[in-house]
């Protein structure tokens, strides 16, 4: 349930703003957030999320139980360019890229522990005692042939 986007041509610092916004959300909330977000990286991150959802569904997971377990934005390659400056010198321009890794997790339904009341415990103990008495009386009676 993973999806990767490599060498996305935007600075990791700018992409992390979007990634941190959707981290830990369930997929329905994350998709709505990305639809209305006014950042350039929201569209590629949304496509990446849809790809991860398709991967999870292909593995047989239920779409409603998925959430964004991890989204990581790492530094990709840096393209170096030059810009002419005064007196024949040059300044370097770094064109940064990002590697985005998205991991989905599946929510496990929590089973509520049922607290037994005192009455239920007493009934349980009483049925054990009655059952043991029946077994004892059955052993004590001789078999008639």
Please describe what this structure looks like.
Strands 1-3-2 form a three-stranded antiparallel β-sheet, covered by helices on one side. 42% of the residues lie in helices and 30% in strands. The longest helix has 23 residues, at 118-140. Strand 2 and strand 3 (90-106) form a beta hairpin. The chain is built from four helices and three strands. It has a single domain, classed as Ribosomal Protein L22, Chain A (Alpha-Beta Complex). It has 145 residues and is an alpha+beta fold.
Summarize this, please?
By secondary structure, the chain is an alpha+beta fold. It is built from four helices and three strands, in the order βαααββα. It has a three-stranded antiparallel beta sheet, with helices on one face.
Largest sheet: 3 strands, antiparallel
Strand and helix order? EHHHEEH
State the fourth-level CATH superfamily: Ribosomal protein L22/L17
Overall structural domain count? 1
Query: What structural class do you assign from the helix and strand content?
Result: alpha+beta
Question: Which fold name fills CATH's third level, the topology?
Answer: Ribosomal Protein L22, Chain A
CATH class group: Alpha Beta
* Rg, alpha carbons: 31 Å
Number of helices, where a helix is a run of at least 4 consecutive DSSP H or I residues: 4
Based on Cα principal axes, name the global outline: rod-shaped
- Kindly report how far apart the N and C termini lie: 70 Å
Taking pLDDT < 50 over at least 5 consecutive residues as the criterion, the unreliable ranges are none
């Amino acid at each position: 349930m993973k999806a990767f986007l490599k060498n996305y041509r935007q600075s990791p610092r700018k992409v992390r703003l979007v990634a941190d916004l959707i981290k830990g959300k369930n997929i329905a909330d994350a998709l709505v957030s990305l639809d209305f977000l006014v950042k350039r990286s929201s569209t590629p991150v949304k496509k990446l999320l849809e790809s991860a959802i398709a991967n999870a569904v292909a593995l047989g997971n239920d779409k409603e139980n998925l959430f964004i377990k991890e989204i990581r934005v790492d530094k990709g390659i840096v393209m170096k360019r030059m810009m002419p400056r005064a007196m024949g010198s040059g300044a370097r321009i770094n064109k940064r890229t990002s590697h985005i890794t998205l991991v989905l997790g599946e929510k496990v339904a929590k089973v509520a522990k049922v607290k037994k009341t005192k009455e239920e415990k007493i009934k349980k103990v009483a049925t054990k005692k009655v059952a043991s008495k029946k077994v004892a009386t059955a052993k004590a009676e001789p078999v008639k042939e």
